[in-house]
Design brief:
Length: 164
């Protein structure tokens, strides 16, 4: 009976999807940023990585549309990098101001590298409807600047098209 309940709980918790998830980039974050701005388009690629070994694990689950975290301090693991893409073409994805109290689902940079199940975290990120990057240092009177990002670029540049 306990095994059945556990399987039901895991399937339910990871089967739910988030509407919004804010990834907070703090002073401990190691982020490489490559960006291009030109007339009509702004493109940025954020590669978030961890050089050092992680000393804790985080269990992540979704319950009733909210992200739940459970911290366990004991692991030493190496993790891959995560790449997020911000694309604003002709104003279709502007930065937005978001009040600190309105951010229901927040993951810190360190949470990305402490996930007990990295593949489940990746699936959670892929299935989240609106994924935002927020720099912790860019806070003004309780508001942050958030950029809506994706895990994969949503367009492909072609030199042939630009030359025509």
């Amino acid at each position: 009976m306990r095994i059945l309940f556990f399987l039901f709980f895991v399937a339910t918790a990871y089967g739910q999807k988030l509407d919004e998830l804010y990834i907070i980039i703090d002073k401990h974050s190691q982020v490489d940023t490559v960006g291009v701005m030109s007339k009509g388009i702004e493109y940025a690629k954020y590669r978030i990585y961890k050089k050092d070994k992680v000393s804790h694990s985080v269990g992540l689950s979704v319950e009733e549309g909210l992200l739940k975290k459970n911290y366990i301090m004991n692991d030493q693991k190496d993790w891959p990098s995560y790449e997020f893409y911000y694309i604003n073409e002709k104003g279709d994805n502007p930065r937005r101001l978001v009040y600190e109290g309105d951010m229901k689902n927040v993951v810190f940079y360190s949470d990305l590298y402490g996930a007990i199940e990295p593949m489940e975290l990746l699936q959670l990120l892929k299935e989240t409807k609106n994924l935002y990057l927020v720099h912790e240092n860019y806070k003004q009177e309780g508001f942050y600047i958030a950029k809506k990002v994706t895990l994969e670029p949503k367009f492909k540049l072609s030199l042939n098209e630009e030359l025509e």
